[in-house]
Design goal:
Number of helices: 11
Radius of gyration: 19 Å
Helix content: 25-40%
Strand content: 5-15%
Low-confidence stretches: none
Structural class: alpha/beta
Number of strands: 5
Largest sheet: 5 strands, parallel
Shape: globular
Strand order of the largest sheet: 2-1-3-4-5
């Protein structure tokens, strides 16, 4: 890539809470370096300015929940050289993917007085189910250090050095005592992707699986351990069906346990 111009960065929102976009704004001092290296060409959370595409890097937050979303993400992909999905919504459908396991029409009927005015799909799905994705950055929300690493990797023409091991490794690296062993607290850490710095276990709480499945997670083994610890079948399902309910390993394991 020519160094005569700064590569264009675009940040797009689909169905989400905006938390992952805010992670970029929360970079504080690092944001100055990002703005110096990249032209922030489209970012509605931060500015109304729009210099237009095509874009060298697009960061996508949010899941696909409407027919308009499905069409819009195809347009975004067409004007994006490098597309990165950020957060649980974009990489796995998010908490809103819990609709995938229920009767969508019935939920609309119960919640809305005039459900016919609601234009939504029966599912909430990851961006990768609709268009090719160059890199997925997990988390709810994402970690700013990992985000900076992804942007830096793009600028230097290399693959991002984002670890695929589990949260348990982060616990060991931080010297955090295992909450399952020491306190009998159910914890999703053994099957959850690293990135948060073992935040919850460091406060003696079990991991909630915010970063989605780690590489090759042994979900069946963890589920059996939960049952041995006294967790009900329904409790096991709820543990897997949270922020990343529609991520395949978590989806399948949750469906194997209760309602």
């Amino acid at each position: 890539m020519s160094r005569k111009r700064r590569p264009k960065l675009a940040v797009w929102k689909f169905a989400s809470c905006d938390g992952c976009q805010l992670t970029l704004l929360d970079c504080e001092d690092e944001l100055l370096a990002v703005a110096e290296a990249l032209q922030i060409a489209y970012f509605r959370e931060a500015t109304s300015a729009n210099s237009g595409g095509p874009y060298d890097v697009s960061l996508i937050e949010g899941s696909i929940t409407t027919a308009d979303d499905a069409e819009r993400i195809r347009r975004v992909r067409a004007v994006s050289r490098f597309l990165v999905t950020i957060g649980a919504c974009a990489t796995a459908g998010g908490i809103q993917a819990l609709r995938n396991f229920r009767d969508h029409a019935e939920m609309l009927r119960v919640v809305y007085a005039r459900p016919e005015y609601i234009d939504s799909l029966a599912t909430s799905t990851a961006i990768a189910e609709h268009v090719p994705v160059d890199f997925e950055l997990r988390g709810c929300p994402i970690d700013k250090r990992q985000l900076i690493e992804v942007l830096s990797a793009y600028l230097h023409g290399r693959r991002p050095a984002v670890a695929s091991h589990s949260t348990c490794v982060e616990c060991k690296m931080r010297g955090v005592v295992c909450v399952m062993v020491a306190h009998g607290t159910p914890c999703m850490g053994p099957v959850t992707h690293a990135g948060c710095g073992a935040l919850c276990p460091s406060y003696t709480r079990g991991c909630y699986g915010c970063y989605g499945p780690a590489e090759a997670p042994n979900t069946a083994s963890l589920a059996r351990r939960f049952v041995q610890m006294g967790v009900s079948e329904g409790g096991v399902r709820r543990a897997f069906h949270t922020f990343n309910a529609n991520a395949e390993p978590f989806r399948q394991e949750g469906l194997a346990h209760g309602d």
